[in-house]
Write a structure and sequence with these properties.
mainly alpha, 283 residues, 63% helix
Amino acid sequence: MPRETAAACPGQGNFDKPWSKRIVDIASPVGSSPRSRGTRRAFFILLYAATVDPAGFTVLDAHLMPARLTPYVQACGGDVAKARRLYVWNIEISAAFWGPVSSVEIAFRNAVHRELAAHRGRPDWWNDPQLPAQDVDKARVEEARLQRLRSRSRQPPATADDVVAALSFGFWSSVLNGPGTAFEQNRFWHTCLYRAFPYWHYRPGTSGRKEFTRRVELLRKFRNRIAHHEPLHRRDLARDHQSLVAMAGFIDPGLGAFVDSHSRVSATLARRADAVDNGQCQF
């Protein structure tokens, strides 16, 4: 359906009603059966998603201007309508990145945890008294917090896996970031942590750790930009995506293939021009 005909759809102008009510009004004509209403509901939900151009939503200006929307207006040469579309596309590409980011983050922390647990001979390796407290303090604090919460709610004690899942990606990247910590190259990187990434070219006695930790730090900063709803549209997002796939591949090539084949990033990047020029964007 051409975009300009969307306004003629029943219920399109009922903006004083909740979205759910508007969809029901459209999808449930008098005398229709439940099955046909369900079919129409699905059709019109797709219709809304495909045809509502964000350029016409001036409400964005009131709630986002000036600081939030200004970079988008500048990127669009002062065209406010296109800036609204770019803003929505930025949300869309951010959402597309979350799948690859979450997959890599979870695999990364599990890989590091697995090697340190094996090296120290205990699943709660952060409680090893031989480790300097300043290097593992965040893990110990998080474990204590989880145990307090579990105790208050009369739940079983938190496990090592619970602590691993609760720690931020910043903690896991700091484990590799030395020197100056217990995890610096001469302590744990060359004895166990490099095994967490068997398809990275580093081996004990060779160079390569500095480049790897640089990649990890870039990944952490990119992940945080997405989490903090920052503009991504000026970045080389294709390269960012390749870096995510590569990091997954350093852990396991099969994981890299999984992330690459299930990601929506490339398709979303390909639609940027259509999104900004024609309003074909959604989230």
